[in-house]
Design a protein that fits this description.
heterodimer, A: 371 residues, mainly alpha, 16 helices, globular, B: 455 residues, alpha/beta, OB fold (Dihydrolipoamide Acetyltransferase, E2P), 6-stranded mixed sheet, 10 helices, 20% helix, 20% strand
């Protein structure tokens, strides 16, 4: 693989300071470090370093999302054909998947092209290295929008999320809200008809999502079966329908230690507790809508969730509780997960502040007790 | 009073190249260097000129702010050069050693028979005083103050660190005398930290003092971590810490009346053909440790100290005043095609499970890794701050403290525990940081700022 190194060395001078393509310095740097782990050696401090870096962490999350993406493609095709032909005449697996693949792929491409384009440009203006954070955000966004969303709308939402959600705060690691959810919130409030109303599932796909149907007063018996919702054969945003695939992703995230198990567990606990007060069975809440997906992939974002371990318990619990509260008691918004997470993101620094203050008091007390 | 503290948080980095339990004869080099940089927050005021003759224990320079603290020559010889760095700052005083070593003689005294003031005087005159580190901040102790405790950690848990039970096996007399001296300075408040696995026959078990036992991975051996549980340092409080080596040097001063910095140094690292222990004086040129040659054709980094906190000495550098370890690691200038995306990477170590190299022992590998000095990534903003807490057995929020330092918020730094930590305590946080943030450097800057503001 020496030839890659050779090519990079050959074209590098043009992109370096003073070269004729130096205005693309950050872009070049991003591709270079993407292809080759840099030969940078440690300077100050520890002479040896763990081989884990942000690129690795982000790629693990992307891998954890792949089951959801693949299933989302299949389900898109399935919902399309279910609306068009009787169940007995469904074509085989491949045509169904292929249809969904062609529907979902443009979403992924638009998300990455627009998002990374903005990231690269801003890194160039600031003279920074390009951050890896968007690798995950870019995959999350297509998974949490309805497949029928017009591409220009998606592009606009991505631009909003990256610019207003992340870059104005200073980029990955500095943002207050989860950028992917911000993109969804942007669409939700700017183009509500496309997100919740009748226009969802045009294009041959009929029927509202079970959660929306429930909000409109459909009785429980007329909804798809719990098993179908658990497996994911229901209408919904691309990646959120199958609990099986989400659990697979959760297993990867928990096993590698990338996401916090504390947030996931406390989020489910919060949801279950509030769900007991409502008239929808508790186990339905866990499989409907974006709850599971949000709980596993969005609430656990290490940047926008609290930094303290105690804070994570509080944050997760309140996120889950708020989600079900919104679902049960707010007829305006059938789906509560997005708003719950965004609200709790806002409160993360406050939760941390409380936990840190308690820690400070505890330490002062301990020092005093030792004389 | 004795207590056992069990730490679950921390990390023993499984490095290749630990020192074999064999000793090479006393090593000597023609040049020795006394480095003011080994003593934090001191400004050297020279007492010698180039060409002056010194004996082991003769003053070379004193601290500008506390002129009674003398820094003395480890060996006898001629002052060869005053090495200066940026802005003419003195970075080293080089001594050309004599063939035959001459010692400055100090009065031999029984510490119980003389006053504590006289003991302080002797420690200051002989150059033993800077062996006492002061917490907070990790600077040499102030001569006028009395600490609330004196603390000695009797084991080093750092990667490839020397085995103290081995290096001090013959030093019981001097260690005991050292404790007796310290008991006079701070009666009844000398604490010793032992590892739970320390053998009952170990010299340290036979020493007087308040014993505490610790178990768990690195940084369990750091005095800062132990103090945090035993006797935390708060605002306006001072604790002195010493290494067993410092204790032994002080002991030898009172036993023999000489300033003898001889220590047994562990020469370690995967870049060496063989590893082991060697006796030498402080400030020896590392190139003189030829009993342990480098592997051929390898570009190595020679570190005075351990791989987490040591100084890059370079091929012609010198052993640090406080160091008992030299580590030789391969330089990591190599690039790797899409390394971050490779699923296995079995020869790379990560404390995180995003690599499956931690399963290496199951796949027939030794479970020890040959780490080089590659940064393994690029510098980013804070993202995964949870990793820090996993390797720090202290009730301190690392990311909040580091951010307070970056914001230069003195009040917050104080509240979040800057008095209790030194860069060495957070070295593992720096090691595991996926954003490659230089935590030790930031913390040192914070400490410097505190010192400046508190004056």
């Amino acid at each position: 693989m020496k030839w890659v190194e050779k090519i990079i060395e050959k074209i590098k001078p043009a992109f370096s300071k003073g070269g004729r393509l130096s205005f693309l310095h950050s872009t070049f740097n991003a591709f270079e470090t993407f292809l080759l782990v840099p030969g940078t050696v440690t300077g100050k401090g520890s002479h040896i370093r763990d081989c884990n870096d942000l690129k690795r962490v982000m790629i693990v999350v992307v891998i954890a999302l792949v089951p959801c993406l693949l299933f989302g493609m299949y389900n898109t095709g399935l919902q399309h054909y279910l609306a068009m032909v009787p169940k007995a005449e469904l074509p085989g697996f491949l045509p169904v998947f292929w249809y969904g693949f062609l529907k979902v792929l443009p979403l992924v491409i638009v998300s990455y092209v627009v998002g990374l384009g903005i990231e690269f440009t801003i890194a160039q203006i600031r003279g920074h290295e390009v951050n890896e954070g968007y690798l995950v955000t870019g995959m999350l966004i297509p998974l949490i929008v309805p497949v029928t969303i017009p591409l220009w709308m998606l592009a606009l939402a991505v631009a909003f999320a990256v610019l207003i959600g992340k870059e104005i705060f200073g980029g990955t690691g500095m943002n207050i809200w989860n950028p992917a959810l911000l993109a969804r919130a942007f669409l939700f409030f700017s183009y509500p008809a496309y997100m919740t109303g009748d226009k969802v599932w045009v294009d041959g796909i009929s029927g509202a999502t079970p959660l929306a149907a429930l909000a409109e007063g459909t009785p429980l018996q007329e909804l798809p079966s719990w098993t179908d919702m658990f497996l994911g054969f229901i209408p919904g945003s691309v990646g959120e329908t199958s609990l099986v695939c989400i659990l697979l992703g959760a297993a990867i995230l928990l096993y590698t230690g990338v996401a916090s198990w504390k947030i996931m567990i406390s989020c489910v606990a919060g949801a279950v507790l509030i769900a007991f007060t409502g008239n929808i069975p508790v186990h339905y809440h866990l499989v409907m809508g974006g709850f599971a997906f949000g709980c596993v992939f969005m609430a656990t974002d290490p940047v926008t969730s609290p930094q303290t371990e105690t804070g994570k318990w509080i944050y997760g619990f309140l996120t889950g509780a708020l989600t079900v509260t919104i679902r049960l008691f707010n007829p305006g918004y059938p789906e509560g997960m997005m708003l719950a997470i965004l609200l709790m993101n806002t409160f993360s620094p406050l939760i941390d502040h409380v936990v840190v203050s308690v820690n400070v008091k505890r330490r002062i007390k301990r020092i005093a007790s030792h004389g | 009073m004795s207590a056992c503290y069990k730490f679950r948080r921390g990390l023993d980095i499984p490095l290749k190249g630990s020192a074999h339990l064999m000793t090479a004869p006393l090593a000597s080099s023609s040049l020795y260097t006394l480095k003011p940089g080994d003593f934090k927050n001191t400004i050297p005021k020279l007492l010698v000129r180039e060409g002056d003759i010194v004996q082991a224990g003769s003053p070379v320079y004193c601290d500008k702010e506390h002129p009674e603290i003398l820094f003395t020559a480890p060996v006898s010889g001629t002052i060869h050069a005053i090495v200066r760095g940026e802005k003419r700052k003195i970075t080293g005083v080089q001594i050309l050693a004599d063939e035959e070593q001459m010692q400055e003689l100090f009065p031999v005294a029984d510490p119980e028979q003389i006053t504590p003031e006289r003991i302080r005087e002797l420690l200051l005159q002989s150059g033993c005083w800077p062996l006492i580190t002061r917490r907070p901040y990790g600077t040499p102790a102030h001569p006028g103050e009395t600490p609330k405790a004196i603390y000695i950690s009797c084991f080093d848990s750092a990667p490839l660190a020397p085995h103290y039970d081995f290096t001090f096996a013959e030093s019981f007399e001097s260690l005991l005398m050292g404790i007796r001296v310290l008991e006079r300075l701070c009666p009844g408040k000398v604490h010793l930290g032992l590892r739970d696995t320390t053998s009952p026959h170990s010299v340290f078990r036979r020493l007087p003092g308040i014993m505490h036992t610790f178990s768990g991975p690195h940084p369990a051996g750091n005095p800062g971590v132990q103090l945090h549980h035993v006797c935390p340092v708060g605002k306006d409080q001072v604790v002195w810490t010493l290494t067993p080596m410092g204790l032994s040097i002080i002991g030898k001063l009172f036993l023999n009346g000489t300033y003898d910095t001889t220590r047994m140094v562990a020469v370690t690292g995967s870049a060496l053909t063989r590893t082991g222990y060697i006796s030498c004086h402080a400030g020896i040129q590392v190139s003189a440790l030829t009993a342990f040659p480098l592997k051929e054709g390898i570009q190595a980094r020679i570190i005075s100290g351990n791989p987490l906190t040591g100084d890059n000495a370079g091929p012609d550098g010198f052993l640090g005043f406080h160091h008992q370890q030299v580590t030789c690691l391969p330089e990591g200038g190599k690039r790797e095609l899409a390394g971050w995306a490779r699923p296995l990477r079995l020869n790379k170590f990560s404390a995180a499970r995003t690599y499956i190299s931690y399963l290496a022992p199951l796949l027939g590998k030794t479970g020890r890794f040959n780490l080089d000095t590659n940064l393994n990534g690029g510098v980013r903003a804070f993202v995964l701050t949870r990793d820090y807490q996993k390797v720090l057995p202290m009730d301190i929020f690392v990311s909040h403290l580091i951010k307070a330092i970056l914001a230069e918020d003195i009040d917050k730094m104080e509240l979040l525990g800057i008095y209790e930590v030194l860069p060495e305590d957070l070295a593992l946080c720096e090691f595991v940081c996926p954003s490659k943030i230089e935590i030790q450097d930031i913390l040192q800057k914070g400490i410097d700022l505190m010192i400046k503001e508190m004056q």
